[in-house]
Predict the 3D structure of the following.
Amino acid sequence: MVDDHPSVVLGLASILNAQPDMHLTAGGASVAELLEQTAELDLVLLDLVLADGSNPASNLTALAPLGVPVLAYTSGDRAALVREAGRAGAAGMVRKSELPSVVVEAVRAVLRGEVVASADWAAALDSDCAFVSAELTDREAEVLALYASGETAERVGRQLFITRETVLDHVRRIRAKYAAVARPARTKVDLYRRAVEDGIMPARD
C-alpha cells in the first residue's frame, strides 16, 4: 500500500490481514519507499494524493514494471486525479470510507482481473469528454463487447457471422483507436476495462 498516513495503512492492514488468504506485505509513504521494501507483490493499493507531490500517472508508471494491478484507495473527492489514474491504467477505485467488506471485495475483484467500476469512478470518467473519444464503430463495439467478455475470436466470429481473421482485424483497429487517445489496451483485461469505461459492457458483479 502507498499512503502517507500511517494510521490508514495500519487500519487497512488490520482489515486485510483478518482474511485467511490476504496479507498486507508492505506500506510506504511513496512509491519509491514501497519499492525499497519489496517487489514481490500481487496488487498495490495507491492513494492518489501523496505528500511527496507525485501524481497518479507518474506513480502508476513507476509501478508498471511490477506487472501487478493497481487499485486507487482514496477519498475520491478529486475527479481529475481519478481520471488521471484511469488513463494511466489503474484497475479501479475504492473509497477509504467504504465498509471493510466492500474494500475486501474490491481487492478480490481486481485480483480476479476485473475492473472495480464504482459510482465515483464512473462519474469521474463520464465527466471527461476526452476519455470516451475512441469513437468505435457499431461493429467494433459489438466485437469489443464479446471479445472482452472472454469469448475467443472464433466464437465471436460465429456469433457475428464473420471470420476469425475479420474479428482479429477489428480487435487490432480497436486497440489502435484506444492507443491514439492515450488509453492503451494491450491485453484482454485492458480491453475489458475500456469497454466498461465506455459503457459498452457492464462491470462484473
User: Anything to note?
Assistant: The beta strands are 44-46, 70-74, 93-95. The chain has a mean pLDDT of 86.
